[in-house]
Specification:
Layout lengths: L11 E5 L4 H12 L3 E6 L4 H9 L4 E5 L8 H12 L4 E4 L14 H29 L3 E6 L12 H21 L4 E8 L8 H5 L1 H10 L8 H12 L10 E4 L7
Parallel strand pairs: 1-2, 1-4, 2-3, 4-5, 5-6, 6-7
The structure holds NADP nicotinamide-adenine-dinucleotide phosphate.
């Protein structure tokens, strides 16, 4: 039956940055579809843990700072120690720095590129090695942005990182599809999380943004859950290197 293609019963999914926001919505969605969750966070993912365990799924809490690549080997090792395998990686953790391009600092460039681009690539590489060793393929889902498609304003390193992620998603798909590994991305539109608090607090910007969203509302973490389950499941086995916008129609405008 077709709905079985979306079933993730017993699969193991690593989700980075899932103590809050979109990552929490994704982790809970994957758990609802049947996944045990490896949660990679800097701070305690208390609320996410209780939501996932309430669904009867297992939850492994790994603390790591994704500003650097140093914790990557232990993320893979601890996942294997606990669950014996990895099936899905969602690279969700990300940061943003806002300043006029004319004044933008090297630190704000490097910090954002490190978390949003460098660590995403090297964590994907480490997990892809594990997928290849397991011999049964795997699913990698990167969280991109509207600024994978557009230029944005006052967020140069964020635009560079998210545009880069869309490209590297294609590259990884090209190289790893032969191993049964699907690499795709989701580009969320304007979503209600900590990341967009400053935008929503600015009434003028808030109204400008809302006026451009055909759906007429900001997105929520729950809006990402089912698209992520699709890309994590056999339902998307022939989808490779694609960035799916989940944006209430923003890009269609
Ligand atoms: P958020 O609420 O700020 O959550 C970001 C997550 O990333 C948090 O769990 C955060 O952990 C984690 N993180 C940041 N730096 C980290 C580091 N060095 N090491 C480990 N974890 C780190 O933002 P969000 O809106 O849910 O964003 C999630 C993803 O969606 C990001 O990649 C973002 O760029 C992308 N996105 C968001 C929107 C939107 O409208 N909200 C739109 C497009 C794309 P801490 O709590 O410890 O900081």
């Amino acid at each position: 039956m077709i709905l079985n293609a979306f079933n993730l019963e017993g699969k193991v999914a690593i989700v980075t940055g899932c103590n809050t926001g979109l990552g929490q919505g994704i982790a809970v969605g994957l758990a609802e579809a049947g996944c045990n969750i490896v949660a990679v966070n800097r701070s305690a993912p208390t609320e996410t843990e209780s939501k996932v365990t309430a669904l009867g799924r297992q939850f492994l809490d790994i603390r790591a700072d994704l500003t650097s690549t140093q914790d990557i080997p232990s993320i893979v090792e601890k996942s294997i120690e606990t669950f014996g395998r990895i099936d899905i990686l969602v690279n969700n953790a990300g940061i943003i720095r806002r300043a006029d391009a004319i004044e933008f600092t090297e630190k704000d460039w490097d910090d954002v590129m490190d978390v949003n681009a460098k660590t995403v690539f090297f964590l994907s590489q480490a997990v892809a090695k594990q997928f290849i060793a397991q011999g049964e393929g795997g699913k990698i889902i990167n969280i991109a942005s509207m600024l994978s498609f557009q230029g944005g304003i006052r967020v140069p390193s964020y635009t560079a990182s998210k545009s880069g992620i869309m490209g590297v998603t294609r590259l990884m798909a090209n190289e790893w599809a032969k191993h049964g590994i699907n690499v795709n991305a989701i580009a969320p539109g304007y979503m209600e999380t900590n990341n967009t608090e400053a935008l929503r607090a600015d009434e003028t910007r808030n109204q400008e943004i809302l006026a451009r969203i055909p759906a007429g509302r900001w997105g929520t973490p729950e809006d990402l859950a089912a698209p992520c389950v699709f890309l994590a499941s056999p339902a998307s086995d022939y989808v490779n290197g694609y960035t799916l916008a989940v944006d209430g129609g923003w890009l269609a405008r």
